[in-house]
Every structure is written in structure tokens, then in C-alpha cells.
Amino acid sequence: MTLDARKAAARKAAFARRKAAHEAGHRGAAGHLSEVLAGYRGVPVSGYLPIRTEIDPLPAMAEAAAHGPVGVPVIRAAGAPLVFSQWEPDCALVDGPFGASVPAEERLITPEVLIVPLVAFSRTGGRLGYGGGFYDRTLEGLRAQRPTLAIGFAYAAQEADDLPLEPTDQPLDMIVTEREVIDIKR
After folding, report:
1. Where residue 112 sits, what CATH number does that domain have?
2. Which residues bind ATP per the record (predicted)?
């Protein structure tokens, strides 16, 4: 089986697990995420506006926004890294690419902490995303400039033992679920 086929199969299984966790109402992870972000008050953070069955980081993002800038990803083009537009609770939003909303007024920030959505994760910091490579390119560029913390945010059910990864896949530094905070030691 090719790497692409293995990734497609892993995504399909992970989407099913994520959907089941979402429908079961597994909540509480935003509290764990708020606790983690409290250690980075004032540091520029990026979160995301959840789509479909993604776990919702908005409560933790709103809390972080009271202490410093919080951005959300904006896709400029396929194959390009993400940029981040400053978000605030109740700010005006417009439809962006791939069904994700973005702030109506674009004010770019450069985050040092990224809350990263994902399809599947491993306890060693592996992350399987949607397949566009946006976060991999973005994290690679940010990490070339300064230390950048990547926090995977997911339901515990999204954990996988053996993810098909490539050398270009950027590792997570931490994973936050509704059950626990997993600090990846490197």
C-alpha cells in the first residue's frame, strides 16, 4: 500500500472516530486548553474557527484574547503557508476558503503558539491533517524564525498508534484532549 493510500485510510478511520466523539458530546477540553494557554499570557496565539466535527477551541481562545493577540488561519493559496488574522470574540466574520470563517477585517499577526486542528495524532507528536500541508509549511517557516509551540487540539478518540508520516510533517509539541494534556518530550 502506498503512503498516500495509507494516509487516506488513516484519515477515513480518524474522521469516523472524531465524528463519534463529537456526536457523543465529549466536551471539557477547552478547560484543559485554557490552563495550558494561561502559561503563555500575552504571547501571540493562533487558534481556529471549528468546522464540521472539529473540537471547539473558542472558549479558550476568548480567554486568551483578554491577555494578548489571538489569530485564526487564513488560506491565501494552495501550496502556500497560512497567514493569521487577528480574531476577537464577537468580531465580524466572512466565509473563507474550505468552509472556515475568517475575520472580516484582516489584521495580520505572527503567532508563537499555534492551536492546531487535526484528523489524528500520536503520543509521539505525529499529526495527520487534511492533506493540504498548510500547517506543515507554516510551522516549518515559523520555527525557522523563532521557537514556536504547536499544540494539537483533539478528542482523545482521534489518537492513533501508527500514523503514516513523511519527513516534511511537522511534529506537535503538545496535545490537549478532553481527557488530558500530553507533553511531548524531544
Report:
1. 3.40.50.10420
2. 7-11, 127-135
Residue 132 assigned ligand-binding role: yes
> What is the C-alpha to C-alpha distance for residues 51 and 153, in angstroms, rounded to an integer?
13
Domain with 96, as residue range(s), is 3-183
Cell numbers that stand for 176 in this block: 490537549
Residues 119 and 17: their CA atoms lie apart, in Å, by 9
How do beta strands 70-74 and 45-46 pair? Answer: parallel
What's the total number of domains in the chain?
1
* Measured distance CA(115)–CA(102) in Å, rounded: 16
Question: Is 78 annotated as a binding-site member?
Answer: no
Yes or no: say if 148 and 10 are a contact pair by the CB < 8 Å rule.
no
Is 54 flagged in the annotation as binding? yes
Ligand-binding annotation for 10, yes or no, is yes
Q: What is the mean pLDDT of residues 153-166?
A: 92
pLDDT, one tens digit per residue, over 84-103 is 999 999 999 999 877 789 99
Is 118 labeled as ligand-binding? no
130 is in an annotated binding site: yes
Residue 172 in contact with residue 125, Cβ under 8 Å?
Answer: yes
Residue 7 marked as a ligand binder = yes
Q: What are phi and psi of 15, to 5 degrees?
A: -60, -40
Is 129 annotated as contributing to ligand binding?
yes
